[in-house]
Amino acid sequence: MKRILTLGIETSCDETAAAVLNGGREILSNVISTQIPVHQKFGGVVPEIASRKHIINIMPVIDEALNTAGVELHEINQVAVTYGPGLVGALLVGVSAAKTLAFALKVPLIAVNHLEGHIFANFLSSPNLEPPFLALVVSGGHSSLIKMIDYNNFELIGQTRDDAAGEAFDKIARVMGLPYPGGPQIDKLAKIGNADAIDFPRAKVSDFDFSFSGLKSAVLNYLNTAQMKGEEIDKADVAASFQRAVIDSLIDKTVAAAEKFKLDKIILAGGVAANSSLEENLRGVCAKRGLEFFYPSKILCTDNAAMIACRGYYQSLIKNFAPPNLNAIPNLGLVTTN
Q1: Which of 194, 278, 300 is nearest to 239 (CA)?
Q2: How far is the CA of 270 from the CAs of 4, 144, 234, 299, 308, in angstroms?
Q3: Which of 51, 185, 224, 238 satisfies CB 3.0 to 4.6 Å to 89 for a cystine?
């Protein structure tokens, strides 16, 4: 059987990544060059610096992905690239590289929604996973519930009305003086804290939407009040209590949505999926309720190009190709239904 080789390219934020997939689920290579050490001194991603680093890294990363996969550039059958959402300058580097390669190779160009890519990371970790299912996508910019009907048919049933969960994690970590990236630091600190120490609020919003701005404000007020009073703060307890409030909201909505739409499979996706407490608690709840739970490996939770190539492959099956004048869309909506 002839191999279908997809080159995936991802540059939506501060990771320069390239991968080669055979078919939809066989990873031949998955190379990621992270910029975390560069941005740590600033306490967060600096868009201009990220773009410049992508320009330096993009071709060496693609070369490494091809070499690791053991394939020549001319063997690539199609090129898939993230075109949004993300930082516009960073996205443009990947889109420009992908357009150039697709044109030179005379192969199809596939424009991939970054958040849809996160969902498809689960297909790489779970070869037997098939739609339909409910996806909880949790990242720095999105907290969403998506009903996946088939590989190219999605329905958005809930999303954040204000701050995303990942954004709240990063903000609280920064205020607490924890290093960037903040999410993993909160997760680590919470392991030694008491999650019942502080009763932070859970927003009550209708249907299956999320809201974390009120929780974020409550934690900031708690920290500021304690500081003004000269009271000592147990950072571990704050981290654990805050994290518990976020996770409770995410899990409650997810399980309720699965029951309403009669879906017996739940998948977790996005950068915040790497949070160990979220994964453990959602897995436990699913087990108690008889729901199947799927979760990508850690390397596939964060931004990577293998998930982009996977999503691109399934788009190619319905010939959902991009025009040669493809442009980056930094505020691209989360879900499209094909």
Answers
A1: 194
A2: 26, 10, 29, 11, 13
A3: 51
Q: How many CA atoms lie within 13 A of 137 on its CB side?
A: 29
Q: Looking at this protein, which amino acid is placed at residue 284?
A: G
- The more confident residue out of 27 and 177 is 27
Tell me the average pLDDT across 256-263.
Answer: 95
Strands (E), 139-254: 143-150, 153-159
275 contacts 191 by C-beta, under 8 angstroms: no
Looking at the DSSP assignment, which residues form a beta bridge with residue 32? 17
Residues 96-113 have pLDDT tens digits of 999 999 999 999 999 999
Q: If we measure between CA atoms, which residue out of 199, 235, 191 comes closest to residue 218?
A: 199
Residues 156, 158, 159: CA angle, nearest 5 degrees: 100
**CA dihedral over 46, 49, 53, 55, signed as positive or negative:** positive
Lowest mean pLDDT among 73-82, 164-173, 320-329: 164-173
- Residues 6 or more apart from 109 whose CB is under 8 A from it? 78, 79, 81, 98, 99, 102, 321, 322, 323, 324, 326
Contact of 139 with 117, CB cutoff 8 Å: no
CB 159 within 8 A of CB 334: yes
Q: Is residue 17 part of a domain?
A: yes
Cα distance between residue 294 and residue 144, in whole Å: 16
112 with 144, same domain: the answer is no
Q: In terms of domains, do 113 and 76 share one?
A: yes
d(CA 96, CA 100): 6
Tell whether 67 and 168 lie within a shared domain: no
* pLDDT tens digits, one per residue of 131-190: 999 999 998 777 899 999 999 999 999 998 888 888 889 889 999 989 888 888 999 999
